[in-house]
Amino acid sequence: MDKNTIIAIVLSTVVIVVAFVLQPIIFPNTRNANYQATETVENTENFNTSEELSNSILTVDNASGIEESEDNQEIIPEENFVVQTDLAKIVLTNKGGDIISYELITHQDLDTGRGIELSDNISDFNRTASLALGPVDSKIINDVFESKKIDDYTYLFTKKYVKDGKSFILGKRYTFMPKEYMFKLDVLIHSDEEINFDNDGVFYTIRTSPQIGPHYDPKKNRYESRQFVAFGGNKYKRTNLATNQFKRYDKEFIWSGIAGKYFVELIVPEKSDIINSGFYSTQIEVNDYSNAQALIERKAFKGNDITDTYYFYFGPRNNKDLKRYNVAEENGWGFGGRKLTECIQTSGLLNWLEVALKYILELINKVVHNWGASIIIMTIILKSALFPLSKKQSMGTLKMQEIQPKIQAIQEKYKNDQQKLQIETQKLYKEAGYNPASGCLPMILQMLILISMFNLFNNYFEFRGAMFIPKWIPDLSTGDSVATLKFNLPLIGNQIRILPIIYVVVQILNGIVTQFGGMTSSNGGNNASMKFMTYGLPLLFFFMFYNAPAGLLLYWTVSSIFQIGQQMIINKIMKDKKAEMNFGKKDENRVLPPKAKKASKNKTSNGKKLNKKL
Q1: d(C-alpha 427, C-alpha 489), whole Å
Q2: pLDDT tens digits, 521-577
Q3: Rounded to two decimals, what is the model's pTM?
Q4: How many C-beta neighbours within 10 Å does residue 306 have?
Q5: Spatial contact of 340 and 180, defined as CB atoms under 8 Å apart
C-alpha cells in the first residue's frame, strides 16, 4: 500500500470521526422523552383525508411504546413563519409546530415600546400551544416538523411517528382570521391501523403560553396579578396565583386559561368531553408570579383518525372584545354559547353596581373625551348625590349625643332587667325622633360604592394607556410619575410620584375638618384613636397606595377634597344646632333672683290669662 493511499485512509477516518462528534452538537437530537419522530410527511396540505396521510411509518420507546424509526435520515432545518392580522403578529416555529411569539400590535407595552407579548418566556422546555405526548408531566415535543403554508392565515405542521410497530402522522394546523382575537388549532392524527394512544389514561397535554405579558414586579405592583380562570357552564373559577404552584383543577370545565389584569389566554376545546384534567402552574423556570400557565390533558384515544379542535382567545380581558364570542353571529368563527365574559374580573354580588357606575362613566366620557376628567366629574356627581345621607348621618350623631345622658340613666336604672331596658330605650328613641339604623345606611351605601369603584378603576381596560395630564399622568392604569431614580427607595421603588402625596395631605385635612366638627368625644382614649385616624392612617395609606393606579388614586383624592367641603357645611349646620340646644338648656337651667322669679311668674300668669281670654 503506497504512502498516498495510507494518508487518504487516515484523513477519511478523521473526517468520519469528527463528523460523528460534531453532528450531535451542530444538529442536536431534541426528541421527546416519550415519543420520537420518524420521517416527515410531504405534500400534505389539508390533512383532512386518509389518502393524503397514507405514507406514514411508526415505532416505539420504553415509556409509551414509541421510538424513532431507522429510516429517519432527513434533517429538516428549523424555520419560523410570520402571520400578520389586523390585531396581532404571530410567529410560528416548525420545532414542535408551536407559537413562539404572539404580539398584540394594537396594544402597546410601555416598557418595551412594542405590542403586548402574550407568548413570552419561550424555551425548548415550554412553548405556546405545544404538545406533550402523555400526561401533564411529560416533556413537550421538540422534533422539527414538516411545514406547509396553506394560505396567509393557515399553516400545517406534520411529523411521522411509530407506536407498537404501527405508523401514524401527527399534525397541527393553525388557522387565524383578520379582526379576530381568537384563532383555531386542530390536532390531527392519521394511521392506516388502529392504535391505542393511552399513557395513564392520557393521550397528550396542550398548554397556553409560559408567560403572559406585560411583565410586572409583584413586590412593587400589588395591583397586577396572574389568575387561573375556568368555566364549567354554571360555575366559574378565578384564583390568584403565587409562586411555585402546580395544581390540578378537578372540576369539569368547558374552558380554562390564564389571566392578567388586562389580558387573558383561554383554551376552549370544541368538545369538552375529551378533557381528562385541567392544571395550572407557576413552576416555570423563572420563579415569578408573571410566569403562569394553564394545561389540559386529553383523554386516551384508540383508533386511526382523529381531529381535535381547540379555540384560543389571546386578547384583552374586557367586555367589549370578549362578548363578541358569546354570540355566534357576532364573530367570524361562528363561535358562541361558552360565556367567555365570565373570565372578566368583577365585584361579585356588587357587579350590578359596578356595571351601573361604568355606564355613567362612559356617558360622561362621551362628552368630555378625557377619562381623568370623567373620573373627577363622576366623583362629584356621586358625592353630591350622597350628601343628604351624609348630612342625615351627622345629625343623627348629634341627636345621639343629645340623648346620651338619658340613655345612661335608663341603663343604670334597668341594668338588671334587660327586657325593660330595651323597651325604655326604644321608647326614648321614638320620643327623640332618633333611628339608630339611620346612621348605618349612609355608611353601608358609601362602602358598597367604594368597593365597586375600587374594582372598576383598578381593572377598567379603557384606563390602560389613557392620558390625563401629559408628563405627569400619561396612563391612568399605572401610578403617576415625574421622575425616575437610578436606585430603589424602601417600600416605594424608584418612581417619584406626586398624586400619593396629594392624597395623603388631603386625607389629613379631611380628618382635621371632621374632628373640628365635634364628631368625637373628649375622653383621652378616643382622642388618641382619632389622632391615629387623622395622621397615622393616611401615612400608612401613603405606602400602601404609592404604586396604585393613578385612576384609583385620582378618584380617592377628588372624593376626599369634595368631602372636606361637604364636612365644612355639615360642621356649620351642627354648630348652629349645638348652639340652639345649649341655649335651650341654659334657659331651662339658669338661676334667677327672687324678684326676677316673681316677675317671670307674673309674666307667665298674665300670659296664661291672656291666652284664656283669647
Answers
A1: 59
A2: 444 445 777 778 888 888 888 988 898 899 989 999 999 999 899 888 888 887 887
A3: 0.77
A4: 18
A5: no
